[in-house]
Amino acid sequence: MRPGPLALGGLVLALGSCVSLERPQLRVLTYNIHHGRGTDGQVDLERIAKVILSTHPDLVALQEVDHRTGRTNNADQAQILALLTDMEAHFGRAIDFDGGEYGEAVLLGLKSGTPRTHPLPASPGHEQRAALAVPVWLPSGEEVLFVGTHLDHTKDPADRLAQSIALKASFSDQTAVVLVGDLNAEVGSPPVERLLKVFDRAGGRQPLPTFPSDKPTKSIDHVLFRLPGWSVKSIRIVDAPDASDHAPLLVVFERRAPLR
């Protein structure tokens, strides 16, 4: 017996309702790539790109990226990774290094605006650090500021605290922001606690160990955010023990309610 027109109409409505229940997602990856040098000592950007592509990200923040340095054969690593991943790339200089530059990069699969590099405070004799910020537009039209950074790595936490204070001052007034990167500090430390006064953290206070990549014990890579209407759907520490000394951290956000 064939269904009548009303039954078919009801089926179409039911299918339409199922589709409308699908919630928009935003996939964010942070990855310290150690200038592409893996734990085997080989610089291999194709390997890095394969790790990135395996996570299907919308936004990627990369730390320890070389830009035309001698040690990585004058390569523009951000643009090479852009070609390998079919994403848009921007580089943010932290320091001059080995005939080129060294710093942050972002890979973007969303429409974006003009990037801006924010130098962060550093004590004399310490390596200069930076934050790379770029506005992006979600398919819904929402604007989000995406920020990638890398804080001081020395045993003295003073610079990390000063840098976290600078990040808080620069980005705490943004309506929607995702701030990610290698903070070289764990939850409970003054630098992270300072940022948690104005941002949420994917995983809350749960440890998310990403370093070292072969047997992670330190939770120093973070995804911080303020995203009205969005919540964390899932978190994954990506198993990639060879590509870099850090494991990538993937956070998937989901919109809790439709836009009005």
Number of helices: 5
Number of domains: 1
Are there runs of 5+ residues with pLDDT below 50, and where?
5-20
Calculate the mean pLDDT score and round it. Answer: 93
* CATH class category: Alpha Beta
CATH H-level name... which superfamily? Endonuclease/exonuclease/phosphatase
- Counting DSSP E segments of at least 2 residues, the number of strands comes to 13
CATH overall fold name: Deoxyribonuclease I, Chain A
Helix/strand-derived category reads alpha+beta
Please write the string of helix (H) and strand (E) elements.
Answer: HEHEHEEEEEEHEHEEEE
Q: Any idea what the CATH architecture is?
A: 4-Layer Sandwich
Strand content: 25-35%
Share of residues in helices: 10-25%
Distance between the termini: 42 Å
| Largest sheet, strands/sense/barrel | 7 strands, mixed
Write down the Rg.
Answer: 20 Å
What is the general shape?
Answer: globular
List keywords for this structure.
260 residues; alpha+beta; 5 helices; globular
Question: Could you characterize what this model shows?
Answer:
Helices cover 21% and strands 34% of the residues. The protein is of the alpha+beta class and 260 residues long. The chain has a single domain (24-255), classed as 4-Layer Sandwich (Deoxyribonuclease I, Chain A). Strands 5, 6, 7, 8, 9, 10 and 11 form a 7-stranded mixed sheet that branches. It has a 6-stranded mixed sheet with strand order 3-4-2-1-13-12. Helix 2 (45-53) packs across helix 3 (77-85). The chain is globular, with a radius of gyration of 20 Å. Mean pLDDT is 93; it is low at 5-20.
